[in-house]
Amino acid sequence: xxxxxxxxxxxxxxxxxxxxxxxxxxxxxxxxxxxxxxxxxxxxxxxxxxxxxxxxxxxxxxxxxxxxxxxxxxxxxxxxxxxxxxxxxxxxxxxxxxxxxxxxxxxxxxxxxxxxxxxxxxxxxxxxxxxxxxxxxxxxxxxxxxxxxxxxxxxxxxxxxxxxxxxxxxxxxxxxxxxxxxxxxxxxxxxxxxxxxxxxxxxxxxxxxxxxxxxxxxxxxxxxxxxxxxxxxxxxxxxxxxxxxxxxxxxxxxxxxxxxxxxxxxxxxxxxxxxxxxxxxxxxxxxxxxxxxxxxxxxxxxxxxxxxxxxxx
Length: 313
Ligand SMILES: [Zn+2]
Hints:
Layout: E1 6-11, E2 23-29, E3 32-40, H1 48-57, E4 67-73, H2 108-119, E5 125-130, E6 136-145, H3 150-160, E7 167-171, H4 182-188, E8 193-200, H5 206-222, E9 237-239, E10 241-246, E11 251-255, E12 262-263, E13 268-273, E14 279-284, E15 289-295, E16 299-300, E17 305-311
Parallel strand pairs: 3-4, 3-5, 5-8, 6-7, 7-9
Antiparallel strand pairs: 1-2, 2-4, 6-8, 6-15, 10-17, 11-13, 11-16, 12-15, 13-14, 15-17
Helix pairs in contact: 1-5
Bound molecules: zinc ion.
Zinc ion (ZN) binds near residues 43, 47 and 97.
């Protein structure tokens, strides 16, 4: 272990698709040995509340009292920065967020997913922070991937509860079969992870920054790296299914619900109009649940996902 308390580096990876890219990383190195916590943000570069939380975290740990090491990479999707690309990496038009566990010989998104899991291979927990690309508003939620091993799943849920979430999405082990979020990629290796969502429409807002920032502090406390962290204030609702709701047709959409809101089965979530102001359709809740996120932009193409609905057991 280095004796430097703060270690700034530009890290590179061997994968062919990642040649020429250097990723800024900051390590806070505690004086005492202990666990390693790896934190990333900026898989989606417009989710600035989560990026700000990552940047702020370097000052959230005192190396004099920290046990172990906190490694922070505030921006993963560097190719998306110049044009503030939404959702995808512009080099391959793929969403890094659904590319884990990835592969070293793949395109940028697949290769960076694989590289990040290897970078964090010895980390006791990996945290991936998200929330609020340019056209959406998300609730305060976390995603917990389960694998079917009671001890592993319980610990992953305890980590998910470190965030002061409205909702926790508990993904069943069937998600391990397909490419998915970083927490799913970590779980394929039986490694723990947290995935946090808070933010909206590209804005950096204190309540959303705080959600991510304090959640990571609570994980550090949970791991025994620090003595104290702010107490959580909410009791989250657990949802076990994540439904992606599609716009039935193109139109000008008027949303009737907000992120975080509970909705009954059949509740009208959005009304579609044409440009003459005539109602052309509506989107209703297929089941009772909670709005994980919704689009904010009224102009919607058909088949676009306009909302995520979390459904309890
Ligand atoms: Zn995101």
